[in-house]
Amino acid sequence: MTGSSGSIFSPVSPHAQAITDLFVISLWICAVIFAIVAGLVGYSLFRYRWREGTPEPEQTAGHKKLEIVWTVIPFLIVLLLFGLTVRAMQHSDPPPSGNPDLIVVGHQWWWEVRDPKNGFVTANEIHIPVGRPISIELDATDVLHEFWVPQLTRKMTTVPGARNHVWMQADKPGVYEGVCSEFCGTQHAWMRFQVVAESPEDYAAWVRHQQSAARPPAGAAARGQRLFRDMTCVNCHTVRDSDRAPNAGPDLTHLATRRQIGSGILPNTPENLRRWLSDPQQVKPGVKMPNFKLTDEQLDDLLAYLHSLE
Ligand code: CUA
To answer: Is the CB of 145 within 6 Å of ligand 1?
Structure first.
């Protein structure tokens, strides 16, 4: 599956479609008004320009009919835009119903994705079945963020301690780009995520896999696991093989299956993960993860462990 354009001009859900329609209609109405006004101004400039010997044009003050016309027409246009906006709001943001399918939590600078119904947690990659509206509850841990998948959802702010809600739906399978669209600090630009919309069967298989615990590591991976525990990685990251569940950093239980690392900053390849572990600050300055100054040998073991987290 390839990535999408992420453009609001190619909506793939009824919610995003309503917003795109409103934008296009408003743009056309404004374009027609602009053309009429600019045309009349241009015509008058040309037709009534000053010529040698012409007398001063007739001066008029007050014209009741004209004034009524230019008050009523804009009023009707505003009324029409108001009606279209209310309709778009209803279609793009219906009220939540029942328990949310997902709880998405904004952190500086990544997204925690909880699936309360299926009982697992992941990060920066949301899988959904095609064609079904997904109810998402939004929360944040530190500052305001804003959840937005231009092709699938409206924008919605995530507020620490106050739950907001958004609907998300994808009518075509694909990978859709999501962003944080409210400035939230140094790495606001790299607070991205992807939505993978897939067939109900593929989605169910993905869910089953996410529910499973991490595979017990062996060899170099087992040494890496010891490092992971000794180097305090476990203080921020969860690997679901114990009862501890810190969430200061992304859940890594199935890290190896994810498409990207650093909330979209790099594709999840062995070289990139090595670069990240060698010095996270060099890849994503300001990120909360410190440089652990790992030796090459430690890096090899830790990478073996992380790659085993399929
Ligand atoms: Cu989070 Cu901008």
So the answer is: yes
